[in-house]
Structure formats: structure tokens, C-alpha cells
Amino acid sequence: MGKVLMKGNEVIAEAAVHAGCKYFFGYPITPQSELVAYMARRLPEVGGLFLQAESEIAAINMVYGAAGTGVRVMTSSSSPGFSLKQEGISYLVGSELPAVICNIVRGGPGLGNIQPAQSDYFQVTKGGGHGDYNIPVLAPASLQEIVELTKAAFDIADRYRTPVILMGDGMLGQMMEPVEFGERLDKEQFKKEWATTGTRGDGGPKIITSLELNAESLEERNRNLQRKFARIKENEVRYETYLIDDAEYIMVAFGTVARITLNAINKARREGVKVGLIRPISLWPFPEKPFIETRGRVKGFISVEMSAGQMIEDVKLAVNGFAPVDFFGRTGGVVPTQEEIYDKIMSVTGGVTV
Amino acid sequence: MTMKTVFKKTSGLTDAPTHYCPGCTHGVIHRLVGEVLEEMDILEDTIGVASVGCSVLSYEYFNCDMTQAAHGRAPAVATGVKRVLPNRFVFTYQGDGDLASIGISEVIHAAARGENITVIFVNNAIYGMTGGQMAPTTLIGQKTATTPFGRDVSIQGSPIKVCEMISTLDGAAYIERVSAHDVPHIQKVKKAIRKAFETQKKGLGFSLIEVLSTCPTNWGLDPAESLVWVKDNMVPVYPLGVYKNKEGVK
Ligand SMILES: Cc1ncc(C[n+]2csc(CCOP(=O)(O)OP(=O)(O)O)c2C)c(N)n1
Ligand code: SF4
Fold it and tell me: Are B40 and B201 in contact (CB under 8 A)?
């Protein structure tokens, strides 16, 4: 196929098709509507099905029904719509059903606006719906990375029988970049004996449910879920680092902001400031290791976010007090500029550190 | 002496004892759905969707693949199942709080899409599981935990007539209201359920059977009185009959 110039939202959609996703249930909301429209055109071509639901609540519940039959299925939304999906996501976790849910985050709270933001960080990484749970969250920073992470999202979903969130901001959804999809990704073979497809030829009835009336039994179910979350924490951490080996200060940023931060770092480096970057790719599980490894040689961290300061809590937990953690953020859909971040670096580090 | 079997348990139900209160017609309706699935020989090709309410555990009673839905969302879940597996039979089993209150949007849109599923809608004019609160179907003047002085139109509005409403939608193929209050009517319930599944088998679109049902526990009546209450109070408000039979299913 070679390189093609595409919009972020469409890259997610095409990457999902490459990953073997044939079913999509969605509801329009800016800034992710192109994803929905792309699926409406594309899925019939691969013998799949697109259905526009009457609401995000219905869409996620259609996903629940389809996921129960064992197919690869996806839905997508942006912040206000994602809030509506939380009920269904909690049920997907409770019933252990695999699905991929995309959240192209916009400014909030409430109706907010349609500009890019990262202010759903708490909602996606700390459960979000009711009950004790976590969901793997992947946050690409480029359109090419979307291709890889969308496929990974479906694999993680099937491997652990869990919903997986693909999170981007409105900027990532709307920008255009050349991408390469490569070969149609051959999905790993996942046996889904638990799927409800009718009992003909395969023994007794199968039941998909999150109901467990007995307290001890539900606690046991929760223990099993927690063990699964621990396995995910062990195996599915993703991050990237940039110039951290000699860094005295480390920036922490994900998604679009990580790219802007990288440019600010390069500028500061040219000024002789030893600064590096940790870019979490999996927001949950949060990559704690690269922080711990810098213990004793780093003077401080700066979390840069398009929110009022949410990821900084995870950074502080990872750092656990061994160094100060600073913050720079813009909210309401304002994207931080390279200059702002550079100025922040200069004010925290005090300029040249050699 | 040879003995002839004149009555036996349907293979449409599992052996699990149900938890329903004595005199509750949920059990009767379960049995009728089970019998229809057995007689049509489609048990092995059926996926049922349980809802939230007293029938929340119905997935333990129906002898087919089952999935449990969030409160009111069963028609959306059923849509997801049916769209992936168009050749299987998919049904939901929902109470009136589940379907006519929190889930009214999901059922209307499933019907409007002509979703080829069957909805078994059990109307007992009250929320059973949560302890007898008002449902959208609660009768005017009926006392419940949340209408202690009786449902007052000026405060709580009037009952929602689901069959009448859904039958206005083009996607609705078979809509009938029946009642489980005595034997002749119970036989009609079974016939209606069968017609609904026949409608689905023919791929004609959305079918819904509303069954007037009892809740002796929350009505504060004994089982026999409850059946009379259905006949005397519910049937006049919720007229029985076929509201839609688009393709003349027999
Ligand atoms: C989101 C949500 N809201 C409320 C409830 C509590 N709830 C459980 S059953 C029920 C009412 C069910 O009534 P109905 O559908 O009439 O069924 P019945 O119990 O009468 O058979 C309610 C409100 C819930 N489980 N989930
Ligand atoms: S509470 Fe009412 S609806 Fe529920 S099982 Fe008892 S009688 Fe039936």
C-alpha cells in the first residue's frame, strides 16, 4: 500500500480494520466524527457491519452484545460521549468481554468545546465507571504509532478479555500525516470458548454476566480481576524515553503534548540544559520503571499536560518523593506552545546546568 | 400398565429452581418461552438477553446461551448479538421498569430499526425487585412505595402504553398484548410468543409481546387476588390484542 496521507481519526479506523475489527457501533461527536464516517464506508467492503446507534449508551451496549459473540468490535467517542459509555464499560469489565473503545478527548467539563485536551486522564486511567477496576489505556503520539497501537489494543483486549481504551486528543484526531499500514495485520489466534453463539454442537449453555449476588463470590471474582490487572501491569507497560541518561531534569508528557515538549527539550539542550523526556504510551499501566531508574541522578521532573494536572499524580506516585515534581499545563482546549514549555524548563532548571 | 406422559418439564428451561415469589407469573411466562423454543427446535440457535429486575437471573433458567444486560439496555445488547449472528434467534426478557422507563430509548430505536429480535415484555405495573416503586406502567390511583397516595396524573403523568406506541413504528413487525391471569389467556400468551419467534424466523423485523403479569408481593395481594386484579384493573387500561401483524403471521 505504501505511504498514504491520512487524517488521524481515519488512521485509527483503517488500523482497526487491519487488526480484524469488523463491527463498529458509534454515535457522532466532534472531534472524532471522521472515524465513525470512515467505518460506515469501509466496513461493508470487508464484509463487516457499521451501525449508528441512537446514543453512546446504546452504542457501548451493542458493543457488549457483539463482543459476547467473540468478534472484534469497536466504538469511539469524545469526552461527553465517553462519559455516557462508562456504564457499559464497567459491565464489559465485570463480564470480562474484549472490546476497543476510542476516546478522542476534547475540552471539558460539561459540553466544554471541541478543542484538543487530555482532561479525561483520571476518567480513563482510574476506572471511570462504578466498581474496582482498571482498563489498559494506550496513548499514541503520532499517526504512525496509531497503526501499531490500534492492533495492540485489539490483541490486549482478546488476550486478557478486557475492554481497552485508545486515547488521543482532538489534535491527533484532526491532524494529517503520512502513514504506512504494511501488510494486513494477521491477528493472533484467540480461542473464545466463552462466546455466546448458540449451543448447537458445543455442549451446555454459556452465560455472560457481571452479576454475583453472593458477597464472597463477588469478592472472589474481584480477586480474579485484580490478578488479571496485575498480569497486565507486568506485561503491558509501554513507554519511550529521550535523552534521559545524562538528564538532570526530566519532562513527562504523552500524546500530542509529548511532541511539542520534545521540541522544547531540543531547544533547551542547544542552550546546554540537560533535560530529557519520559513519554508514557500506556497510561494504565503507568510506566513506573523509567522513573525509579533515574533515582539519585535526577534533580526534578516536570509533568506537561493539556489538563489542570492529572497525570502528575501518577508521576508523583512513581517518583515517590525522591525528587520534586513540577507541573505545566493548559486547559480548556488550549494546546501548550513550544515556547511556553521551554520557558517552564528554563524557570525550573534555572537555565544552563553544565 | 403402560403410562403415557401427559405433562413434563420443558427442555427450554434448566433444572435450576426459580427464585420468584409464590403466585408471581414471571415463572409461567418463563415456561411458555421455554416451551416455544423447545417446540420450534431453536433452543440451540438462541441467545437470550436477561435484563435487570426480578428476572435478572433468568439466564440461569433458560436452557440456551444467555447474556446479561445493564438496566434497560437489553435491546441494544440484543442488537449487537443479532447483527453479528443474523441466523440465530435473539430475544430479550424485560420488566416494565426496565423497558418502559430507563430503557425506553433502546426499545424504541430497536423497533424503529426493525431489528429482527423478539422482546418479551413483562408488565406488572410496578418495580418488583427494588420493592414496589412506581413504574411508567403503574395505573392511575395505584398505590406504590413512591406513590403512597396513589398515582396522580397531575404529578406523575399517565401510564405508558408500550404496544400502542411501538406499533406506530414502521420497523415493528409483530406486536401483541396478552395476559397471564387465567388458563385460556395463558394459552394465548404462548401462541403470541410463538408468533413473535415465527416473525423473527421469517426475518420480518421487530416483535414484542407484552404480557400482563402479577406482583403479589408488592401489590399486597394474595396470588389468587392478584390474578383477579390483573383482569379487573389492568386489562381495561391495557387492552389485549394484536397491535401489529405487518406480514400477517399466523
Ligand atoms: C442503572 C440502574 N438503576 C437502577 C437499578 C435498580 N433497579 C433494579 S431492578 C429495578 C426495577 C425493575 O423493575 P421491572 O423492570 O418492572 O421488573 P420487575 O422487578 O417488576 O420484574 C431497578 C430500578 C439498577 N439495577 N440499575
Ligand atoms: S417481587 Fe413481584 S415481580 Fe418480583 S418475583 Fe416477587 S412477585 Fe414476582
Answer: yes
